[in-house]
Amino acid sequence: MKTIYNFINGHSEPSVSDRVGAVFNPATGEQTAVVQLSTADETAQAIEIASRAFPAWSLTSPLKRARIMARFKELVEQNADELAHIISREHGKILSDAKGELTRGLEVVEFATGIPHLLKGEHSMNVGSGVDSWSQMMPLGVCAGVVPFNFPVMVPMWMFPVALACGNTFVLKPSEKVPGAMMRLAELLKEAGLPDGVFNIVNGDREVADVLLTHPKVEAISFVGSTPVAEHIYNTGCKHGKRVQALGGAKNHMVIMPDADMEAAANALMGAAYGAAGERCMAISVAVPVGEGTAEKLLSALMPKIDALKVGPGIVEGPENDMGALISEQHLAKVTGYINTGVNEGAELLIDGRGLTVEGHEGGHFTGPSLFDRVTPEMTVYKEEIFGPVLSVCRVDSFKDAVELINNHEYGNGTALFTRDGKAAREFAQHIQVGMVGVNVPVPVPMAFHSFGGWKKSLFGPLHMHGPDSVRFYTRMKMVTTRWTEHDKAESVFTMPTMG
Ligand code: NAD
Hints:
The chain is α/β, with parallel strands linked by helices. The chain has helices at residues 40-59, 62-78, 80-91, 95-112, 115-118, 154-165, 180-191, 206-214, 227-239, 262-274, 292-307, 329-344, 380-383, 399-408, 422-431, 467-473, and strands spanning 2-4, 6-8, 11-13, 20-25, 30-36, 123-128, 131-139, 142-146, 169-173, 199-201, 218-224, 243-247, 252-256, 284-289, 348-351, 370-373, 390-393, 411-412, 414-418, 436-439, 455-456, 459-460, 475-483.
């Protein structure tokens, strides 16, 4: 069986650890690889290597760094098919979705190729006589990333392309459930011309993350994962003097107004709720129809589509399935447990996806799409993130009630409104307490040249990922003030310096 090692100093390197994790193919339930769970010492060594690579890399011209990113983008495109197969095999998502994740990741690489422009500071001539002043965006040093299972390459690509382009070096800890594709990306970074030691991967679990969070040579931590871990990462990283951005879980609502195009809204909900088997932080997990009539129309449009949804392996010959398997047997049990709880707490289970078996893939971690109606805010299936293909319909009487419902939820990652009413749309965008808002757009993931991040329990830290915030996160500003004038007349001044 294949063993997945680390990628340190430009090479795949076995770990000395005797602890290992199992990587599965979710479509069959079979183990496909072993991943080494690295030790604390190995993590510290990787940080040292990244730290030694920093001086030369930070002095490499931004244009040269940008060209390496451009070459990396070309190489990823050339190897997209192989990468998508690794993602789909380890994660379970359908192949076209794996390719979509690569495309969204590559958009951040494309953004990073603009780094010479993005790093330009501000310059003021003659702020005093013979005195000029400017700002410089300086890299931080060693930056680290800890990432979740659900986007094996896209989420890491929210982080390292901009971090590296800004002149930092990087240590990444992938999810131990899906480590394969990032190892291939590390090889492609090297092939693109990235010097050894600038980008390193340490595979493992909490033991690795804990060193990244506390090691004095790590300057910044980017994290994406569940909220309890995000909060722990934020608190521990800050306590150890690091810059931290930690993105957490979500419960995303889509409000459907009576005037919405019901067919368009139902189609949008299908992809947003059941795409990637609901294992997306921007998945819509709550539909909020405004008014009983809207709820009935929405359900009539939605239910036949759910019944027609094809569930099966992510990689198939011929026509693709719509939805693949869940990541693990444990996660399948957790999602099933939530559906059981929903039934026990009185939600109406209109479509039951539990107990699905896919012929020829009997060991796969499959569940069908599930649909709850008449879900109320005190129910567990409403309050907690399920991270599976379970959509809850939560009926409200008015637009105001919909806004209040969303604003009272502890998460605030994404949300959407479907309507033909411009005034309602404007009011929604203005008053909703959520970080990413769509109007007639169900999954409003910002493009790479804007920044991605939620509010409330969905993000800890002030700066979002990719786009302008990422350049702010991965650099610190230095202000330089110079005087080039006759010095023989200079006298000591003991009052607060002023210019003019
Ligand atoms: P997770 O929190 O279990 O794990 C994320 C990463 O943290 C993994 O690399 C894991 O090894 C590590 N980790 C786990 N426990 C840790 C601990 N105690 N200390 C340090 N590190 C630890 O999340 P997951 O199950 O891999 O991913 C799913 C979650 O990620 C969902 O909650 C989803 O909403 C969230 N997510 C959020 C976003 C976003 O943008 N907000 C994007 C993708 C996923």
